[in-house]
Specification:
With 69 residues, the protein is mainly α. It has helices at 8-15, 19-26, 30-37, 46-56, 60-63; strands at residues 3-6, 64-67.
């Protein structure tokens, strides 16, 4: 079975935006955003994904990558 890799850290680095700033723009806690950034989640709400994409001016495909084991 494959898996989804979260590339949020890479997009944040490209946009030169920190965790605190993104957290404020998206409206979720630093802790939850950090869990997402480090891949320690099993689900994400579309509303959260939309807010992140709007804040970072990116597409969902920029943040998520599918890989086969």
């Amino acid at each position: 079975m494959g898996k989804i890799i979260v590339r949020l850290d890479r997009v944040m680095a490209d946009r030169k935006i920190g965790l605190n700033e993104l957290s404020e723009q998206v409206g979720i806690s630093n802790v939850n955003l950090s869990k997402l950034k480090n891949g320690h989640i099993s689900a994400i709400r579309f509303s959260t994904l939309i807010a992140i994409c709007e804040a970072l001016h990116c597409q969902p495909g920029d943040l998520l990558e599918y890989t086969e084991d």
